[in-house]
Design brief:
The protein has a domain of about 60 residues: lambda repressor-like DNA-binding domains (434 Repressor (Amino-terminal Domain)). About 50% of the residues lie in helices and about 0% in strands. By secondary structure, the protein is mostly helical. It contains six helices and no strands.
């Protein structure tokens, strides 16, 4: 079976990226396009980069409210900013007396 160009592009998307999580929760690229009136290329750009520009977040929160979809503020952020660090990394030499 031949892999289409579009399928290869979608295979390269990071499913854990914030933009892809939010867009998937809202029903996909076409659903977001319909609800926001934005060009598909704009939304596709978010998916490729994996992040939604800050000025667009309030609009997507409004869409989520209208569609009754639960989206947390943390869904718009990379996991590194949301997940707590398990153990702090000790900083060597900081706060220790000099020899």
């Amino acid at each position: 079976m031949r892999t289409t160009y579009k399928r290869r592009l979608y295979e390269k998307l990071d499913p854990e990226a914030p933009a892809n999580i939010v867009i998937a929760k809202l029903g996909g690229l076409n659903a977001v396009r319909r609800e926001t009136g934005l060009a598909p290329s704009t939304i596709w750009g978010w998916q490729k980069r994996g992040i939604i520009p800050h000025p667009r977040i309030p609009m997507l929160k409004d869409v989520a409210r209208r569609l009754k979809v639960k989206i947390k503020d943390g869904d718009f952020l990379p996991k590194a900013f949301v997940e707590p660090v398990e153990q702090p990394i000790p900083a060597e030499g900081i706060g220790q007396p000099k020899d």
